[in-house]
Write a structure and sequence with these properties.
The chain is mainly α and about 325 residues long. Helices cover about 75% and strands about 0% of the residues. The chain is built from 16 helices and no strands. The longest helix has about 45 residues. The protein starts with a helix and ends in a 20-residue tail after the last helix.
Amino acid sequence: GLQKVAAELRRDAENAEDEMRTFQYLVRARPRQNLIARLLSEGRAHLDTAQWDEAARKFEEAIQLDESRIESHLALTRAHLGSKKLAKAFQMLSRISSRHAPDEGHLREYYLLLGEARMAAGRLDEAIQAFRALLAVAPDSFAGRVGLLSVRIMSGDAGSASPFLSSSLDGATPGKGGAEEASREVDDLAGDAGDDPDRRVEIAALRVLLKDPAQARGIFLDVLEMNGDHRRAIIGLASCAATLEHKREALRHLRTYLALHAADYEIRYLLILFLSETGQEGACMDEIKRLLALNPEHGGARRLLVKVTHTIPPLPSATQGAQSPPGLP
């Protein structure tokens, strides 16, 4: 009897030691996990304002802390796609497929990124495969349906008889007939978009691809009525600005957005281009200086400054940080 009691006491002691080791591990791991969560949150905030390189640095830090978290790799891929670093984006996608086993939620994002990367690289037949895979995992994916339809429209615009179209896209063919069919499908998608501003912007972008800027512009304006600082709607509206009146309207929206998101390099550069096109040289020069103060290495702003002033601005030294200009945080 005493031996049995002693054995039970030893087991209890061993279990207690195991529980203590587990507890101590969790205590040590918690600060690291909190730091990773903060880095991911900060990186996504940079994504929202197209600060792709800043976002990438945050996600790279998160990966260094924990290589196993697939969301860090997916987020870094998104940053590389945003900055048009396609080789790095494909490298990340290859790493994800070889080292991770994504669950259904992560698979949706993986196939979406893969389709977008292949589209950006002009590999449209492979993009079809990725969007098909996305829809196989998530048949209700609005992004997957938009991706497939975008490829159809892009192929029709190219005017070449791509062999994958008829077999992969329910008999669609390029040219006028294909464009008319695509237009009807855009109408169907618009019904599913409802009042969701992000989905409506996707519909407008499809209208731009279909060379229907008037309808696209109307949708972008409707979205901005709902959400005055919707970034993609503002960019879309600017892309549809064909007349001086439309460009001035786009300028108003760009300025409204920058009043809330002063550090958005891409939007500020777009503002600079519109100021230049509308003959507002003084305001254009002021905005070039603001952008270079925020991002001294911005290639577009540096080229414009050379064009306007015929002087080459110096690049910052490795130890010199960018200073915010007056009136900017």
